[in-house]
Amino acid sequence: MKNFLFALAVCLLPLQLLAQFNLSGRVTDVATGNALPGASVVLENTSTGTTTGPDGAFTFNNLPAGNYSLKVTFLGFDQKKATINLQQNEFVTLAMQVKSFQAGEVIVQATRADEKTGTTYTNVSREAIEERNFGQDMPYLLEQTPAVVVNSDAGAGVGYTGIRIRGSDITRINVTVNGIPINDSESHGTFFVNMPDFASSVEDIQVQRGVGTSTNGAGAFGASINIQTQQTQPEPYAETSHSYGSFDTWKNNLRFGTGLINGKFAFDGRLSRIKSDGYIDRAFSDLKSFYFSGGYYGDKSMLKFVTFSGKEKTYQAWDGVPEDKLETDRTYNGIGRYTDENGNERFYENETDNYQQDHYQLHFAQDLMPQLTLSGALHLTRGLGYYEQYKENRKLANYNLSPVTIGDETITRTDLIQQKWLDNYFYGATYALNYSTEDSKLNATLGGAWNKYDGDHYGEVIWARYASNSEIRHRYYFNNAIKTDFNMFAKVTYQLTEKLGLFGDLQSRTINYKIDGVDDDNRNVTQQADFNFLNPKAGVTYAITDNQSVYASYAVGNREPARTDFTDTPINPLADIAGPAHETLYNLEAGYKLRGNTAGLFGSDDANYSFEASYYYMDYDNQLVPTGQLNDVGSPLRTNIKDSYRTGVELAGVLNLNAIVEVSSTLALSQNKIRNFKEYLYTFDPDYNVEAITVIDHKSTDIAFSPAIVSAHKLEVQPVKGFKAALLYKTVGKQYLDNTSSDDRKLDAYQVTDLRLRYTIKPGFMKELEFALLVNNLLNKKYEANGYTWTELYTGDQNRYDYNYYYPQATRNFLFSVGMKF
């Protein structure tokens, strides 16, 4: 029997040695449990290595049985090693400890959510950003995240672009870069056109939906977008990428970095240029930008300087296309139109927007003791620019000019060219004191910011057919705005048991806003407003198993009106609220998360998967909603609605099979309603004066620009090493242009398919060479992603006149890129 067993073992041993298995796992932060994408995972004493994906996962396929030593490294974390005796398919979780010296995570730690905060969020990794980054604006790189709808004035994603999350536009989405507010203090908007190719210098992005956790800047009423700039790489590098595509679109950039010098210093930089003619007539963009950072990384301290700048020149396209031209001339752009002396239609060639925005940030962090860290930042944003317009037959009096007398004729109107200027400074300081117990059961942050905005608004006449008594660059209006914003917040997470965690967050915010001067229509807009807000939040998390968890949170948010709510919206004597009031949001979030790795799933040797489901209820008091009309620069006019709500379900799932096939989907189903909405219609006399106001009561209507269904799907395959092909499918349900739920004023539902191809090789003379192709709107669909409307009645006319304008998006178009890494 002994001889038989020995002979059997000898026979089976070669089979065991020939057997091949998969070694996979996930790398996380031991303190937060969050995934660490981009970590380096190496099998020591071999030439085999990889990096973790967006969910922190990694895989080594077809390894012979035996003992292996895994080494994991990630900037800012202590090196992690593990020994694995591989006799079957194995999955390991490797939790890494933050190093004592300060890494980039410290910069955004105070304003980000994690798995212990009980709120709804999505992390977008650097890898996911790079896959989509062909030169289109930042909103287009976030299009696959749940409940996101994007649009472009020029139609192709370059120039002025917009984003809505859960139906809320950018003025209701808090945006920060390294914890510094980016939203304009007055308009609350974020103009990504002023940050061209900024995505090439981004490490990762967190999108929190709903109120989210406390942050700096205007309150989040739809979502917050928390951006972290690139982390220092340990080794020197140089990269360049170049894209070309439809509408003569170009993107060129150069990125470089020194790596860590003597383990203490590092410098990184980028230069970029993007230009495009746009899909819409004359809607060109000429964009330039740079990024630079330099830092000192000590054992217990960090000092890092970050600066980035964007300069844009775009031909205005914010008027959209009239409804009656959609079928005959979808690319029509009426801005800059005038009639020459022979009666011919002309377009002014310099009807452009010109603006430069420079950002300066100085970040510091210090370990005060092993569990206590102090971090903060000083910042300055400088903005200067104008938009230029040709105006026909304008009253001289509106420009503070006297009538012109020529012979017996008195001239009171003239053609002219005007420039409207913004000249502003935004500066301040942020701070955060973070405490964490050694076992990470308790994490507490005391943080906040003091910020000040000082901005001039003025207009100049640079040319007039009849100049009257004007001087060179005649200034016809001027007003100044000063806004101070101070907030403090305290956040605490406490792990009550191994499975149950609690979260609390309380923010106090004080705003003082002053406007002094005259607006462009000669109205005195001098006014002052003060606001004091208290924003509490609380949440709970529960780990059902190692790979399943549930959460719930309740938050209250308050936010002040934007500048146009004060200056552009006429006070309606019949409205329930006189003038703009601040808004309050009561937000309930609840969700379920599942993630793991299962060998044999769907016949695969190795499958990584994740699934998330969330429910939300957002109850608004005095929500400011768009009326459907725009002001003279294309910003929506809004009005307070006493009682409204948004509620819905969001689903998101990812399945990765052997890193060969990846399927991901998001689906957002929602109701967005106004209770007891009153519609106001204005009747005009022959001189266009308001003669009467008609009030129409609606029991319940849909909030404008809030589709009930939004989904995004991706199927990506990697048939051979280095080549990936992805099919992207986006659906957006019907949207209304105003708050009346009328099909006469709506955006039709649309579905868009994109194709993305990437092929990467590693030739001997460089680290990496990549060729990529993005085909947008592969099936050549005609659709509109944004629009606006207004309605008028006229004395003696019983008809209602609706004026609908739309922003058509480009039909089939492409972008091809070449990337090189050295």
UniProtKB/TrEMBL annotation:
Keywords: Cell outer membrane, Ion transport, Iron, Iron transport, Membrane, Receptor, Signal, TonB box, Transmembrane, Transmembrane beta strand, Transport
All residue ranges annotated as the TonB-dependent receptor plug domain in the record: 116-223
Subcellular location: Cell outer membrane
Pfam families, A to Z: CarbopepD_reg_2 (PF13715), Plug (PF07715), TonB_dep_Rec_b-barrel (PF00593)
Domain (TonB-dependent receptor-like beta-barrel) ranges: 307-778
InterPro entries: Beta-barrel_TonB (IPR000531), Beta-barrel_TonB_sf (IPR036942), CarboxyPept-like_regulatory (IPR008969), Plug_dom (IPR012910), Plug_dom_sf (IPR037066), TonB-dep_rcpt-like (IPR039426)
Family that this chain belongs to: Belongs to the TonB-dependent receptor family.
Protein name: TonB-dependent receptor
Organism: Pontibacter populi
